[in-house]
Amino acid sequence: MTIRSRLTLWYTTLLAVILLVFGVVLYAFLSAKLYSDVKSELKTQADAIQQNIIVVEFFGRRTYTLPRLEGFKSASFFLQAYWIRNGRLIQESNVDFHMDFSAQAERILREKENFYETFEAVNASTRERLRMMAYYQPVYVENEIVGVLQVSTPIEGVMTTLQNLEYFLWILSVCTLALSASMGWFMARKALKPIGLIIQSTQRIENGADLDQQIEYHGPNDEIGQLIETINNMLARIRNAYSELEESYSMQRRFVSDASHELRTPLTTIRGNVDLLEKMWNRARDEKAAVTGEELDMSVEALRDIAEEARRITRLVNDLLALARADAGVEIEKEPVEIRPLLDEVARRAQFLPRTAEWVPGDFSIADGVKVLGNKDYLQQLLFIFIENAFKYTDTGEVRLEVLKGGQGRYIGFRIQDSGRGIEPEALPHIFERFYRADESRGQKPGTGLGLAIAKWIIDEHEGSVEVTSLVNHGTTFTIWLPVLQSPE
Ligand code: ADP
């Protein structure tokens, strides 16, 4: 059963119960009220008659007669009496029908208790059947019971009123129920329409079509509105997560294919050189001849190539490992690191790097006593990545390392400035990407294109930032900013 049918059913059943209770209470109340009015009227009449019993005394013998009916206010009251005469009951009636009520009279004489009764009477002349209510009471004269009085009245009016009320209540209930059921059905449809929209949209998504789906809703911001808004937000998040996933998946694929490509080049060189050596030495063995001087030179060169390529592979594999660790979400272990000794150490070791440019470490005194939360080894690696690059891409001129403060002392900066070839503006946004190498670097300078990607990861891990400015043929400046943990001021 649909929610809509259930809602309508509940609603209608509840209304039916309310109407039933209301109808029963109303009917019971009105019926009690009308019957009690009739009863009190009968009693009033009976009391009045009691007062007006006609007593006739004849030679010491008393006879009793009912008063004239016209003397009473309503002709719709009928009087009958039984008089006790010589121990027998003699009936007197002033109406045109007679009804035997000796049994009731005897009950009154026995119990001396008044009571009411409803019965059906037949009008002798019109043969009409009438529902009546009667009141019985003993007739006292001078504290002696002389007879029994019956006062009765037709109750057709009361019954018709109650019957009409019953019809009216039935019709009212049926109409109200029919109206409320159809209104309920209509309203449930209106209220549940947005749910239908949600179902349609989510089914479209389920069927795989389209994550760009949004549920269109222009209604008020009620529970349904909030539900739709939540689902729309959820869809947006799924969409984002999905596109992020796709992006990272394609990055990963590119990374693997770039890495294999980068590994293949040195391996091919190594294979070529090994083949060459093998050929030369096989020839010498087969011909039992000595290796010529020229062949010896070629062998040495081949071995040098092999060693150089092996170093390159080692560097590449180390870099790949570092990035794989970064991708796996490995966090760098950090502790307070003093900057001054770190810089002194880097400056000292940098002078031994292969270089043609001059090495100019600046004045590091403002870093005295400054600490950052970081990892000493990774911070050194970070600075060496930039310094090695600066030397690599600067044939003549100088490479400087300076330290500076920023953000009112909240940040410490390391500036590596060279006067080398610079970076083309269009290459600049890409230099931190994995395997990216500006065109002129390729083939000219050794490198993997992973150095700056690793540097970026280390900076991010230290919650720092990096700025780069470059002018082609004039040089490049990198500034790394790290948050200060503690400073002497
Ligand atoms: P690589 O191993 O090629 O040096 P990096 O990731 O360290 O890889 O650098 C990426 C690219 O950025 C380099 O190939 C080079 O084109 C450019 N680059 C980096 N540092 C400098 C610099 N100091 N001067 C000029 N170009 C640079």
The radius of gyration is 58 Å
- What class would the helix/strand composition place it in? alpha+beta
How many beta-strand segments? 14
Largest sheet: 7 strands, mixed
Bound chemical compounds:
adenosine-5'-diphosphate
Shape assignment: rod-shaped
Q: What integer is the average pLDDT? A: 88
Low-pLDDT segments: none
Annotation field: number of helices: 8
In N-to-C order, the SSE pattern is: HEEEEHEEEHHHEHEEHEEHEE
Strand content: 15-25%
Explain how this protein is built.
By secondary structure, the chain is α+β, with helices and mostly antiparallel strands. It is about 50% helix and about 20% strand. The protein is built from eight helices and 14 strands. The strands form three sheets. Strands 8, 9, 10, 11, 12, 13 and 14 form a seven-stranded mixed β-sheet that branches. Strands 4-3-7-6-5 form a five-stranded antiparallel β-sheet. The radius of gyration is 58 Å and the shape is rod-shaped. It starts with a helix and ends with a strand. The mean pLDDT is about 90. Adenosine-5'-diphosphate binds near residues 390, 451 and 452.
